[in-house]
Amino acid sequence: MGSVYAQSDEAIAKMLAGRIKQRRLELNLTQEAVAEEAGISRSAYQSLELHGTGKITSLIGVLRALNALDEFEQLVPDRPHSPIAILKAQGQKRLRASQEKVGVMEIPGSRFSGLSRIKVPNNKSNTNEDSDW
Predict the structure, then answer these.
(1) Contacts of 68 (CB under 8 A, 6+ apart)
(2) Sequential DSSP letters for 41-79
């Protein structure tokens, strides 16, 4: 059927709905039976099966009723991170704001309450006007 990325969200939803209907028919179950087992109304089930619309909790209930919940795990698998990747990510995580001191300049008549101050470079050791902040 081609790449799913080339399809619209609605087309993917209808494809998923068709697969749910196919699974229900393979198990020889009525819409009423699946809806009851899923804990939703028949109209909610029909909306899910015919149009691919509904709540995600309804979808989970239907997959459970169709004994297909394990296939949901394949839809969005848990991707554990390696211990090294976790340590690297923690090394990049900010724990607190920096204590770097910079000068502050008031902007007279600023209409932005609380934003009337801007940081200006501290030129203690650098007199070059084109220096980075």
Answers:
(1) 23
(2) -HHHHHIIIIIS-S-HHHHHHHHHHTT-HHHHHHHS---
Residue 133, pLDDT above cutoff 50: no
Neighbours of 58 (CB within 10 A): 19
Report the distance separating Cα 11 and Cα 79, nearest Å: 27
Confidence band (pLDDT; 50, 70, 90) for 74? confident
Q: Which two tokens stand for residue 94?
A: 């900010």
User: In this predicted model, what pLDDT tens digit does every residue of 95-128 receive, in sequence order?
Assistant: 666 666 555 555 555 554 454 445 555 555 444 4
CA distance 1 to 11: 11
Q: For the chain, which domains are there? A: 4-75 (1.10.260.40)
Query: Which of 30, 74, 72 lies closest to 49 in space, CA to CA?
Result: 30
Q: Which residue has the tokens 């198990």?
A: 27
User: Is the pLDDT at 60 greater than 50, yes or no?
Assistant: yes
Q: Residue type at 47?
A: S
